[in-house]
Every structure is written in structure tokens, then in C-alpha cells.
Amino acid sequence: MEIKFENVSYYYNYGTPIEKQALDNITTEIKENQINGLIGPSGSGKSTMIELINGLILPTKGVVHVGKHRLRNNVRIINANNLRFDIGIVFQNPEEQFFLKTVKKEIEFGMKYFGYKTDKIDERVKSAIKMVGLEEDILTRNPFSLSGGEKRKIAIASVLAFNPKVIILDEPTNGLDTTSKESLVRLIKMLKDKYNKTIIVVSHDVDTLFKFVDNVIILSNGKLLAQGNKYDVFKRIEYLNSNGVKVPQIVQFTHKMEEKLGKKINDVDNVIDLIKEINKYV
């Protein structure tokens, strides 16, 4: 699904003495069927962008294009529910919102709320569990008995049950150990490669994010600081550092090795690939 921001600004409490600008004239594109990283410090406008994409709020100025939807100021979204079915959001620490006694009840809760037919619900629940790489026997378990990584996968399965075209993950690796992070990274890649999902990942964990995203959008104080292919964006180390943006360690190390070798190293995502590249010149 195509998502574009066209000269979008957003103000909270617009027109009042306490108005606050959250986004300032943003023009950018979320690449379809790719993994897009949304980066920036707290208060940079990331959450506002997510709410605009999902139709929870409307832009003060400009237009947000979400598939066939055109979201403008003072335009009532007649089919807002349809838009939100197209956009699935997994919030930060979603497992804290669990409240039912079995995994199955957690996944099917939203579909029952919106009146899905029972036979369709069972089919979608099983399909969603399969997509996140879990066995069906987990459906009978209490979600509070699961590991952190399993809980995160259940939260993602709850969104996948609606079969959204776009999946937004808000700080998905937060609170996970290394093993769970690696498992989640594999899942996110699979959702793009096998199921052609458009994925947006909001994260402060740039080292993990760099391993699996295709593109990045970096915000700072509501402004667009940088955007594009991850390699092109993060190689601007001095520019990003001067604006308080953390650069992935693998990028910094690669840059130092290039200076030492006096040669350009091909784009790499991890240390293993970097070692292979270095060995070509040693």
C-alpha cells in the first residue's frame, strides 16, 4: 500500500494560545513491500506520523496519502474503520495489554468485537499463529505464562489476524533479550519477503534496526532530517552525529576500517559480512 506525506504539518491545540507543532512540512514516502525504519529522539514526531497514517488524527496542513485514502484537514474519513483494518499497529510493550486467559482468546478478541464470523475467526487465528512461527498448541496456553519473545509474537499475530497491508511496530525489540531479538528480526524479514507486507518499525535501537530495514526516515524536532536507503543515510556520520542521531556501530566500524585500509568496503549489515569484506584486502 502506497503511503506518502505531502507537505504535512501537524499542530496540537491548533489556533489556541497553547498550540504546539509536532510535524513541520514533512514530505516523504513509506516504501511499499519494504521494511521502513522511523527514527528520532522522543518528541521528534514519530508517534504523530503513526497516528496520521492510521487516520486517528488529520493533518493540520498538507495531505497524507494512504492507499486510496486522502487525509486532509477538516475532511471526515467516512471509511476510517476500513483504513484501520489496512493498517495494523503493534504498540510498544503490547503484552502489557493482555487480559484474557488464553492466547486464542487474545488473538480473536478484536475480530469478535468487529463482528467477524466464527468460522472465519478460527481460520484466521490459526493462520496468524503459523505466520509468526508458533505451533497451534500455544493457543490453549495462558499468555502470561509465555516468554517475552513469545508474547511479542502473540501481539503481532493479533494484528496479522486482520491481514493488514501495512504493519507498524512501535519499539518491537524493547525489553527482549538477544535471542528473542534475533527471532523477531527473522519474523519481520519473513513478513516482508514471504507475505509482501509493508512494514514500518519505530525504534531507538538503531543497531538492531540496521540489520533488517531497507530504508530509514529520521525526524528531529518535527522536521525531516534524512531519508532514503539505510546505507546512503547512515554513511553521513558527521551530519547525523552533529544532529544528535546515533549511528549504528557496524557503520562506524566500517568507516574506520575504510580509513585504515584506504579502500571502499561494500555495504554490510553485520560483523560477519564486514570480516569477509576485510579479508579481501588482507
Nearest-integer average pLDDT: 91
Q: Which structural class best describes the helix and strand composition?
A: alpha/beta
The Cα radius of gyration reads 20 Å
Estimate the strand proportion. 15-25%
Q: Can you list the strand order of the major beta sheet?
A: 6-7-8-3-9-10
Largest sheet, if any? 6 strands, mixed
Low-confidence stretches: none
Number of helices: 11
SSE string? EEEHEEHEHHHEHEHEEHHHH
Cα(first) to Cα(last) distance is 45 Å
Shape: globular
SSE layout:
Blueprint: E1 3-12, E2 20-30, E3 35-39, H1 46-53, E4 61-66, E5 69-71, H2 80-86, E6 87-90, H3 103-113, H4 118-131, H5 148-160, E7 166-170, H6 178-193, E8 198-202, H7 206-212, E9 215-220, E10 223-229, H8 230-234, H9 237-242, H10 249-261, H11 271-279
Parallel strand pairs: 3-8, 3-9, 6-7, 7-8
Antiparallel strand pairs: 1-2, 1-4, 4-5, 9-10
Helix pairs in contact: 3-4, 3-5, 4-5, 5-6
Can you summarize this structure?
This protein is an alpha/beta fold.
Describe the structure.
The protein is an alpha/beta fold. 39% of the residues lie in helices and 22% in strands. The strands form two sheets. Strands 6-7-8-3-9-10 form a six-stranded mixed β-sheet, with helices on both faces. The protein has a four-stranded antiparallel β-sheet with strand order 2-1-4-5, covered by helices on one side. Helix 3 crosses helix 4 (118-131) and helix 4 (118-131) crosses helix 5 (148-160). The longest helix has 16 residues, at 178-193. The mean pLDDT is 91.
